[in-house]
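ok so i was messing around last nite and threw this chain in just to see what happens. nothing serious, just curious
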Amino acid sequence: AATGTQPSGYVTTLVEAGVGGDSDVEASDEVGFVWEVVTDNADNDGVNLQLNGEAFRLGARDVYFGIKLQADEATQDDFLVGLCISDTDLLGGMTDGVYFRKVDAGTGIATVAEKDSVETESTGEGTLVANTSITLEFYWDGTAVTFFVDGVDVGRVTANVPDDEALTPSIHFLTGEAVAHRMKVAWARAISIG
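result:
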């Protein structure tokens, strides 16, 4: 149900470094994708999306998060996807979350567990390729978070897992240059088990 700038059930915040205000979320007309995040054309323009309500806690229950996405540019964009505390500017610095992060000027994807603004980060766990789908997933089993890139286990983390905060599915996408960029989402899901 993605139409305009407010996908159904999400809190959407436009992140506008420029003056256009034209970053948007729209229904995808491409087979295999549900919606697309489209940035405006100033460096660091984009969209911050969070499912309405913090409903996932990394405690006794097992928790899964996954997303399949595709970006039109491999180097000149930034994204963050995962389960995070409510924040309208996730890439600007939040306090708690478990997520994947890719920053401007590189193609490497990092895995991050962050508790009270202290991160355990592992860089280069995946590589973004332009116009190529990638699946990013993690699983909390009650004691550790295991990260997966395209179905391959890329690491297990026990330090700085935010087990004292409720989190919500989160997506933040920015252009890294004065050119509009696009991230297509095939699916995103979060499941609490038990």
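not much to say yet. The radius of gyration is 15 Å.
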